[in-house]
Model the fold of this input.
Amino acid sequence: MQNRRKNKKFREKELIAQRYSRQVKDLKKKELVAKREKRKDKTYRKTETERKKSQRDTFDLRKIERQRELLSKREARKNKDFKEKELVAKREVRKDKTYRKAETERKKSQRDNFDFRKIERQRELLSKREARKNKDFKKKGLVAKREVRKDKTYRKAETERKKSQRDTFDLRKIERQRELLSKREARKNKDFKKKELVAKREVRKDKTHRKAETERKKSQRDNFYLRKIERQRELLSKREARKNNNVKRNEAEKKKIARQDEMYRKHESERDFQRKQEHRSNPENLETERLAKQISRQKNLDKDRSYNQSVKSTKRKSTYFTDHEKELKKKEFKV
Done:
């Protein structure tokens, strides 16, 4: 190193580098001073706050900002001292009542926002799936759940939460779709399908289960909206099935055979009558039916009028031409 420093070129380079570093430091200091002076100006501060607010309002920018913050936090938390300091600071902040109130209000507003809840739910599920890959975590989680479920108050709260979810239509719909998707994926496995069928057969042997099933179906039938949804689902499935010619033929043959039976014909006529009565029990349906009849009558009247007019015109034409012909004949006869 001493031999290098004796070299003039090396010394010159070192001096240039030192000067450059000093210049950079001076520039940084100047920039900071300029920023501080700028921030003293109220108009500048206003424009800065408005710019940041507009950035917060744009979803993509917020997302990028959030990701950058999370990455910086993760990198910082690798340092144990930083983690400890952060925890101490959080504990001190949470002692303040105003902060706690603001935090609860913020979380409440987030819960009320549907899109935010959806994103939160997806993040939770992803984190849980990743965590469950670890066997030790799974075991610990199951043990913790068993201990928690021993508490009566927790069980009560859990049942009430599930009940409230069942009462809300949108949540039930989402839950139902999730169940169906999971079942479809599971049924791709043949062993699962076989086990499911065996379990169903065993369950159906139980009289109490059969009774409960019939009562449940009866209550569904009594509910107008459920019947409507069920009917729509049946119709959609039938339409899709009837695209196949073999299904159509089989259905037609079955109906022909069934209609030979007098009891079936009676049942079919009764069913049609009941459907008509249910349809007419709704005043909106009656109104639409009345309007449709009125429109059809008007169309028929218009047709009759147009036909009568056409007939009359043809008659007039024919009589006119016959008179003309008569006159011509008279003239010819005179000549």
Q: What stands out?
A: The mean pLDDT is 79.
